[in-house]
Amino acid sequence: MKDFYETLSYINRTVYLPIGLNIKNVQEEKQNSKYGAGSFETPLKTVRFRVANKTPNKGGQFVVIWRKGKNNKNKPYTYNEAHDLLVVTVFNDTLEFGQFIFPKEVLVKKNILATNVKEGRWVFEYILNGITLSVNKLLKPRSGNCLILSI
Fold first, then answer.
1. pLDDT of 49-99, one tens digit each?
2. Is CATH 3.40.1350.140 the right assignment for the domain spanning 4-150?
3. What's the rounded Cα separation, in Å, for the pair 137 and 151?
4. Would you kindly state where each structural domain of the chain is located, as residue ranges?
């Protein structure tokens, strides 16, 4: 499931509405449509939303969080541009899913969001070890603009 509106509608019906979470100001991010990208607001937070893609050869998933900068080049978001939360949804082959929810304070602390001092990153990679979702390592740096979440 990759389409932003289809995915968010599914998540909204199965998770958000049943717990009384109302979303509004829903907008797709066309430049990242390959990642089910968009944003919305809850009564208390702004949310940037992504759907992870499968990595071709590693048994994991990855997602990008970038914007177009000068000369149409990909750039990480800055702390000031970031929404309050980044929500990354991961699906398996049977449409079972989970969500990683990152406050922007964690994203800046882990050098994902750009600051005056740090460049930031714009790629996440998730390596899934079997079906058990227990966190072994969280936000382990990798080379360049890539970051690995091993769970």
1. 999 887 777 667 777 788 877 788 888 888 998 999 999 888 877 778 888
2. yes
3. 7
4. 4-150
